[in-house]
Batch of 3 targets.
Target 1
Amino acid sequence: MNNEKLLQIASLFAFEGEIESVTPLGEGFINDTYVVTTVGNSPNYILQRKNHNIFPDVPKMMDNIAAVTAHIKGKVADPLRHTLTITPARDGKLYAQVDDNFWAACLFIAGSKSYERADTLELAYQGGKGIGLFQSQLSDFTTPLHETIKGFHNIRYRFEQWDASVAADAAGRVAELAEEISWIASRREKMLAFWALVEDGTIPTRVTHNDTKLSNILFDAESDQVLCAIDLDTVMSSTSLNDFGDAIRSYTNTGAEDDRDLDRVSMNIDIFRAYAEGYLSERKSSLTDSEKEWLAFSALYITYEQVLRFLMDYIDGDKYYKTISADHNLVRTHAQYRLLQSMESQYIQMQEIIRELTAE
């Protein structure tokens, strides 16, 4: 998108000061993100084009973010640094619609930094602390949240999609995938049994972030202490365990998510312990016994779901995830399955760590 168009879009928002420039920030997998720099001492901002193919109801998504951040602001010492601050459009809405695109903006948190990978135990601990803090701040949040992505982390819904995809065989690939499909089938009942505990309330539903990779935690640039969780587009109601499991999938992988060398892929149990320590330092007292019991399993559950989703997209002809080769989703499937196998082989140790860390 050209600079003139970006400046026009930025002018739709109620920014303080005169806009000096709008420049890209990172290479977003879902949204397109820009930094809006203003003249003089006025604050800077983040401007995002929201992917309404992923988020079909951006207004409801922004309502969720507004409700959650307002709740957190009432609990923290520095509301402008310890959670996101939405900047509304000049018409008062939480977003601006330009043609078929939806845009939203928030205050840029100065003096902050983020990390892409938990390559030290301390970073893993702090990342766990960040998500634990986010959940704790919202433990008394009672406002209903919109379901902005249907069936997110709901394995019963994923199996409905899966069965339809295998039956349709849109890309003609099912015949070559007997082994991979058996991976899904052999664990299906175990995963449904876990989700049934969420459905019947044995595992409670709470506010969840739903995208807990380390880069979604901001740190203070000087002290290196956790400031807040960012990228709240996927905030919804689900089980807290999803956030823990997704983080373990992301943090502990010794290889890449799409690693072709499967010998590089495993779960680092030391990173698991460090993340769990950080997370439970904030959440231990407010988790139920059932949540503690199933905390370790949540890592297997989320990783299994990702195996299913990568394989399903390969069967569908690569419609959802961006790919860089014809077999990219299949490569991802194999790498995530190797990670799942590593978790399964260490599951007893994972459970022992959680029991140790949650002991009275």
Note: The CA atoms of residues 75 and 137 lie 7 Å apart.
Target 2
Amino acid sequence: MTMKKKPVTGMRDILPREMEIRNYAMNLIRETYGSFGFVSLETPCVEHIENLSSKQGGDNEKLIFKILKRGEKLKIDTAKEEMDLVDGGLRYDLTVPLSRYYSNNANELPSPFKALQMGNVWRADRPQKGRYRQFMQCDIDILGEPSCLAEIDLILATSTLLGKLDFENFTIRINDRKILKAMAAYSGFPEESYNTVFIILDKMDKIGLDGVRSELLEEGFSQEAVEKYLSLFDHITRDIEGVRYCGEVLKDVMDANVAKDLQTIIQSVDAVKTAKFKISFDPTLVRGMSYYTGPIFEIAMDEYGGSVGGGGRYDEMIGKFTGQNVSAVGFSVGFERIIMLLMERDYQVPTANQKKAFLVEKNMPAEQLLKVFEQATQERSKGIQVNISVMKKNKKFQKEQLTAEGYTEIQEFFKDRM
């Protein structure tokens, strides 16, 4: 049987040029987030199937790579349904594993706990540009902080990172799930239908106001409720004034602190941000995960044409593990999309070490080769990257390749000419 050389569908090999950028970005992430007080952790790539199928992950739960039971536990003949055959799955995000991690280790962790987690996740999705079945996620989360200080910290840390990677003029869109629910309640939609309303609202940027109206009516909602709901969007501006308007109009169905906190987040971020970006109130922002309970946010970047990151507050997830809710909020950067944009820009890593290449003649005597290694060791002690290679017949092509790889100096060593 012939071995297959291409990766499994939806997976990919990563070449050295991209790995250089990825490694630089990962180091910059640790450095930047570390300066905000976040600490690194790691969780297993395999999670209990019960955790992954807990109806917390939205549509991602349809994309789980499930793992068969092993040995005597795998009883194919008596299995009646798929869940009789599996007991684990590859994680589809880092939030569910973090919640389990915190629940299991809370007694040994500070409060609040500021977590940084980077790692691969897997989704059985349809591969497309910027979307793979295995991809790196990068999350920061603050657990145990109920105030909006957590949201401010997360947004500032994430925007600072993007600024250091030379991204600017992006927009962080922000909303609150409590505002979404209050708008639905104010309009007269039944509470059990809120998710249906939000799913349709989430299409606003694609189908427009008229499209949302049509779909809501097709779902059987009353004309009065639909018109009252959509009329809100005619008056809500995408700034502080829009948040204030929501606070005033929805005061009978929403806690006043919801609008106040959102104003504080927007004003604080705007006042002290270091990167060049806008933070904008977006009452149509929904986010797909059902576990969000408060403020939600997304990073929109024109050069990508979509979201390159997002997150929000999920105060009830840890309670699913422990029976006691813990304040929690997180922000995830779309690592793969960021790397793709940097590659398209031909991004040059600014802190790359000086690179030298030593070309040695074939069959060089051991004592002369030793001198080459000694010289290379001296150069490396100065922080210079040194690559020692045997000269090829086509030396011109070899040098061109090395130059393309970033080697700025190429030295040649010949037998008896040291």
Note: The mean pLDDT is 91.
Target 3
Amino acid sequence: MQMPERDSVYRYNADVYSSRPAEKPESLPSQGTSAKRPQINMTRTEAKSGSVFTIILVSALAAVLLGTVIYSLNRRNTMYSKVSALNSELNLTEAENVRLQSELESQMSAKNIEEYAENVLGMKKIDTSQIKYIEIQTDDVVNIPQQDESILGKVKGFFDRCVEYFRG
């Protein structure tokens, strides 16, 4: 009995069970004389070299596509992590800004300014004895007499009046 090769393909002949009489395969010797036994045909098919190359090419293409998908998902997750870290840093910075604004407002109160003026600058509140009032008379009008013009001023005034006369 001959051993089948590795690249051989076996198929089952279902014609034995049909109503038509089965053809006797040429490749197999008869195992028995019983007519009810199914017959198995063995045909040898070889893999084509082009199909192996196609399978390798498609597999490589699938691996490349899978790699690009994994790489893009990794990049997306990295960017999401960076955005999350920057958002948390932004929240901390905004909280620090609110704290500093409230501290600034508390330092700008009138009481704090008064304490700073007294303690640091050495200023004191004024006493009522230090206040002096000055009375101003609003009814008085100051008149400034006109001064006599020089000869050049009189000549200039004459020319100005002439120009106004001719302009209309």
Note: The longest strand covers residues 9-12.
